[in-house]
Design goal:
The protein is of the alpha/beta class. It contains 13 helices and 25 strands. It has two domains: about 220 residues, P-loop containing nucleotide triphosphate hydrolases (Rossmann fold, 3-Layer(aba) Sandwich); about 220 residues, 3-Layer(aba) Sandwich (Rossmann fold), CATH 3.40.50. Helix 1 crosses helix 7. GO terms for molecular function: ATP binding; cobyrinic acid a,c-diamide synthase activity.
Length: about 450
């Protein structure tokens, strides 16, 4: 088994491109690559899945406790796996000054994965050694096994940097990526553009794989990241309730407009016995039949506002279902879609589902970004859970809407989690493994509503 992390000295050093190339090259060698992403990002795991054909897992050490992270990681591996973890931001960038929780470095120590540090080699010689030495010495417990130099103009420049780094730090350079403008991951206001909106991605992956095979010593990386056995870890927190909700069928929004989901959230639902049914607010005329609840994740509904507006039949279908009491849990983009309209920066406005008496307006400035603490009550159960917010929009209420989330970030406090009927919708993205009681309480409520509806039906027929 192999486990390693690809982490950058900062954002924008080409970490995703290098990761994509290394994963693709290993897959071409028929290595059983298992992909992971540090932190809460939704889009990078889509690239991992596209490259490897396997669902990528978010490992967020701020939202999810240490032992659960180990469980989520190692339960997905076998003795022949090659686990590749992509880092987030710079190697040591975490939650704050007092702790490195949430950082790539902290995760590497939690799962005992050596780090291959990615640097941008442009315009440097001996300074590259100083940079690497600083990262090596900053935390000796973080095991930096090698260096990959990105955006190199020539083989001779790489050899110069390699000699400097290895002489002054003792850390081997395992290769480089040439500066290749043909491989570009384009971005928009919330990060990289998702996989299913990109043209020609397969060709870019092939180019990245060829560059990794030619210029990176993959054999050395595998040698430096080899481990003999999978360690013992705790059981999955949802194992105790496995199969308990096999009478529930939950529909989830999945298309280009709604694609932000943690894969382990789906895994938890499946483990609990829930039947999952996808639906598309872009393409479907109505909700699937026989649903007991809805799960509407985030995404970019504002980018597809015109098409969502055109699908009036579906908007009427979902609004009617929610007004009739169908339970629903929605996050960020899901919340935006459930308002009456979404207004773009240029003033253009698109009609949305219209369940909440409110409008969503896009903003030039980032409204919320980062980790948050959430206190709420679900089905009479007080629950504390950790979440993450990242949005450039605001919801403007036309009438007061009750909220269920009391949110804290440092010394700031606010409310969210709009509640109407059996719908709970808020900006926070929530990882169900942060506190399993949150998901169990939502499912208990859905079961309770289903039983009441069945009883009403029996009484009416009787």
């Amino acid at each position: 088994m192999n486990t390693f992390m690809l982490a950058g000295v900062s954002s924008n050093v080409g970490k995703t491109t290098v990761t994509m190339g290394v994963m693709a090259a290993l897959c071409k060698r028929n290595c059983p690559v298992v992909p992971f992403k540090t932190g809460p990002d939704y889009i990078d795991p889509m690239f991992h899945t596209f490259v490897t054909g396997k669902k990528s897992t978010n490992l967020d050490t701020w939202m999810v406790d240490r032992e659960t992270i180990r469980s989520l990681f190692y339960h997905k591996l076998s003795v022949d796996s090659v686990a590749v973890i992509e880092g987030v931001m710079g190697l040591y960038d975490g939650h704050g000054l007092e702790t490195d929780v949430g950082s790539s470095a902290y995760l590497s120590k939690v799962v005992d994965a050596p780090v291959f540090l990615i640097i941008d080699g442009r315009g440097m010689s001996k300074s590259a050694a100083a940079m690497v030495k600083g990262y090596v010495d900053f935390d000796p417990d973080t095991r930096i096994a090698g260096v990959i130099i990105n955006k190199i103009a020539s083989e001779s420049h790489y050899q110069l940097l390699k000699e400097m780094i290895e002489t002054y730090t003792g850390v081997p350079c395992v290769g480089y990526f040439p500066n290749c403008p043909d491989i570009v991951m384009n971005s928009r206001h919330l990060g990289l553009i998702p996989v299913d909106e990109l043209q020609g991605l397969r060709e870019q992956v092939e180019k990245a794989a060829a560059l990794a095979e030619e210029h990176i010593d993959l054999d050395k990386m595998l040698l430096l990241s080899r481990r003999e056995a999978i360690p013992q870890v705790q059981e999955d927190p949802f194992d105790a309730c496995a199969g308990h909700y096999d009478d529930l069928t939950i529909g989830f929004a999945k298309d280009k407009a709604f694609s932000f989901y943690y894969e382990d959230n789906f895994n938890a639902l499946r483990k609990l016995g829930v039947r999952l049914v996808p639906f598309s607010p872009l393409e479907d005329c109505e909700l699937p039949q026989g649903l007991d609840a809805l799960y509407i994740g985030g995404g970019f509904p504002e980018m597809f506002g015109r098409d969502l507006e055109k699908n009036q039949a579906f908007r009427e279908s979902i609004r009617a279902a929610l007004e009739n009491g169908l339970p629903c849990f929605a996050e960020c983009g899901g919340l935006m879609y459930l308002t009456e309209s979404m207004e773009m920066l240029d003033g253009e406005k698109y009609q949305a589902a219209g369940f909440f008496k409110a409008d969503t307006k896009m903003t030039r400035r980032l409204q919320r970004f980062g980790y948050i603490d959430i206190d709420t009550v679900i089905n009479h159960t007080p629950i504390h859970i950790k979440g993450h917010e990242f949005h450039r929009s605001l919801v403007h209420e036309k009438e007061p809407i009750p909220t269920r989330y009391q949110i804290t970030k440092g010394d700031r406090k606010w409310t969210c989690g709009f509640c109407k009927g059996n719908t709970l919708a808020g900006y926070p993205h929530i990882h169900f493994y942060s506190n399993p009681q949150f998901l169990l309480a939502l499912l208990d409520k859905a079961e309770e509503i289903k039983r009441l509806e069945e009883q009403d039906s029996e009484n009416s027929n009787g």
